[in-house]
Amino acid sequence: MTEINIYCYVVFILLSITVQVKSQICKNAAQYDRCSTNSACGCFSRVGTNGDSGVCGFLWPTCSSLVPCNTSDNSCAQSNTVCVQHPRCHDLPLCYPVTMSKQNICPPTINKINSKWKQHGITVAGGNQYGDQSNQLNTPTGIYIDDNEAILIADTGNNRIVEWKYNSNSGENIAGSNDDGDRPDRLFMPTDVTVDKQKNAIIICDSENARVMRWFRQSQTNPQILISHIACGGVALDKDGSLYVSDKKRSEVKRWKQGDIDGTLVAGGSGEGNLPNQLQGPSKIFVDADYSIYVADTNNHRITKWKKDAKEGIIVAGGNGQGDSLNQLFHPQGLIVDKLGQIFIADTVNHRVMRWYEEDTNGSIVVGGNGKGKEPNQLHYPQDLSFDVQGNLYVADSANHRIQKYELYIE
Length: 411
Ligand SMILES: *[C@@H]1O[C@H](CO)[C@@H](O)[C@H](O)[C@H]1NC(C)=O
Ligand SMILES: *[C@@H]1O[C@H](CO)[C@@H](O)[C@H](O)[C@H]1NC(C)=O
Prior knowledge:
This protein has 411 residues and is mainly beta. It contains 1 helix and 31 strands. The chain has one helix at 2-16; strands at residues 24-27, 41-45, 53-58, 81-84, 94-97, 116-117, 122-126, 140-145, 151-155, 160-164, 172-176, 190-196, 201-206, 211-216, 224-228, 232-237, 243-247, 252-256, 264-268, 285-287, 293-297, 302-306, 314-318, 334-337, 343-347, 352-356, 364-368, 382-387, 393-397, 402-406, 408-409. A 4-stranded antiparallel beta sheet has the order 7-30-29-28, with no helix packed on it. Strands 8-9-10-11 form a 4-stranded antiparallel beta sheet, with no helix packed on it. The protein starts with a helix and ends with a strand. The structure holds 2-acetamido-2-deoxy-beta-D-glucopyranose (2 copies). One 2-acetamido-2-deoxy-beta-D-glucopyranose binds at residues 70, 72-73, 75, 77.
C-alpha cells in the first residue's frame, strides 16, 4: 500500500517536471546508501564505470518497468536510462531512468552550500522546566544523534546520559543515575558523549570525576574507566576508532590509538595562552576524515584547526576577541564540521549557532542570535550541536533545558 502511494507521488512529481535539473551522483557509496533528504532515495551502483560513482535515485521504481541492460556490453538502448545494479528487483543489471534521480525528487543532503534551516526550533527533548524526571533535562551540554536518529544527551545537571528515541516524549537513562559520585556506575556532571560504533559503546566525558568512561550499549554493566586525571572538555573518535580528549586544565588535546596506555599530544600542550601553539580552556573537539582536529578554543573565543602532526593550530573561526560581530565568537563550546568543510559552532554566550568556511573572515548566523530567551527562535547558552542523516540540526540549548531541532530546507 505504502509502495503504491509512494509510486503515485513520484509519478505526480515526474509529471510536474518542466525544466531539466541536474541529477545526483553518489561517490564512494555502497548500494542503497542514503544520499538525499528524501528517505525514499538511495545510491545505485553504476555498471560499466569505475565503480566509484553511482546514481542517487528513487529506491522504489516498479521492478517490471525496468528492462535488463544489454548483457554483452551493459549498454541501455532506451534513451535517458543508465545501467545500474538493483538486486532488490533483479540479479542482472537493469536500465534505470535518469528522471528518477533528479534533484527535485532526491534533493541532496547536508552537503549543499546554500542549505538553510528553519529559524524556529522544535523541542525534541526536555523543555519541561528543569528537573530529573524522564521527560525533563537539567542543563544538557552534549549531544550525539545516532544512526537511528536517537538523541544521546549528556544531561549534565542530572549526572546521567539519556537516550531519547526518535519522536519520543521521554528519555531513558543509559549511563549514570540521578546521584553523583565516583563509583564506576556513577557520573558527575558529564559534559560530552560520543558513540563507538565498532564496539557498540558510548564514550563519556565524566567531567567532575576528571575521567573518561566507556559504557557498552547492550549490557550497560561493567562501565570502564578509560582515562583518569583529565579535566575532560570533549571527546571524539576518528574513522579508525582512535579516541581524542580535550583537557581544559592542561589546555591540550591528546589522542589514544587502540591499545595505547599513554596519550599522544595532538593540539596545544604549551601552557594556557593564545599563541598558535596554545589553547585556553578547550571544550568540544571534532576530527575529520583527514585526521585534522578542530578545537572549540573556548576562552580564546576561536576555533582552531590542527592538521595531522601539526605543532601549531590555525584559526578557522573567530579569534577577534569576545563579541557578537560576525567575525567574533563568545566562549564557543561546541562544533561540528561537515564533509564540505563547513564549520558549525555553538557560539554559547552569543546564544546563536554560526557557520564558517575555513577561509572566511566573517561567519554567518545559522539559527538563534535573537538574544537569550526561550522562544522558538531563541537559544540560551547553546553548548553543543549535531546533525541527523537528513541534515536537520540539533542544538543542546542548555539553560532552556531542552534540545532544539531545526529542519533543513532546500531552496
Ligand atoms: C548489445 O550490444 C551489442 C554490442 O554493442 C550489439 O551488437 C547488440 O545488438 C546489442 N543487443 C541488443 C539487444 O541491443
Ligand atoms: C563582516 O561583517 C561586518 C559586520 O559585522 C561587515 O561590516 C564587513 O563588511 C563584513 N566583512 C566581510 C568580508 O564580509
